[in-house]
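fyi for ur records
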Amino acid sequence: MTPLPAFSDNYLWLIQFGALAWVVDPGDANVVEQALSLSHLTLKGILLTHHHADHVGGAASLQQHWRCPVYAPDSSHPSYQTMQTIPVHAGDSISLLPDGILSCEVLALPGHTLDHVAYYVNQQHLFSGDVLFGAGCGRLFEGSPAQMYASLQLIAALPVETLIYPAHEYTARNLAFAQTIEPDNRALHQRIEKTQWLRNQQHPSLPTPLSQELATNPFLRCEQLRQRPEFQSRSALDVFTELRTRRNDF
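which gave:
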């Protein structure tokens, strides 16, 4: 799993198996083509999590060049009309290679957008798009707080060893926000130090294990945060809604 940096802070994730590759959310076709050429890879498919331009912008060009399938949410959004897509739904299983060697399950995760999905590859690697970030979560452009909270709970219920591959390098900023919520969280302080070191070395802070998110991501810790004086007597959904509002202004 290789992150291909694009734009100011996107990661286009390249899934490689031998000389074959799949790409998640190719917002920039040139970035993908350069990576494929450098490593002598053949693009076998494209996985789209949602319709925003920085996630789908290069998909049509890549499909035209490689004649490969594009898996996308079952949506009539105009962004998907520039290519031939295979619509996916919650619970679908996509076989990327024969005999189950490489496959993924589709999770429906509305909130950031109504059509947002994620791809859970080999029950180990979750490509979460713009729903879950390192120590944060996506903005609510189309969905409701209740929808996003439910989507995050679905992720939180996965095995803790799951590795999560968000589409943006937002971790450092999200950790700074998380520290304003839980200044006494020891795991959070340790993660801040580690992330600072990684970014100073120009390394990605991602992927991130779910276990780390459960310990440091405030949007996955709403139940625990209810024990803090400022959130007492409030539901976990109310806590999430308040956190998302605060993060918007942070």
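The mean pLDDT is 97. thats all i got for now
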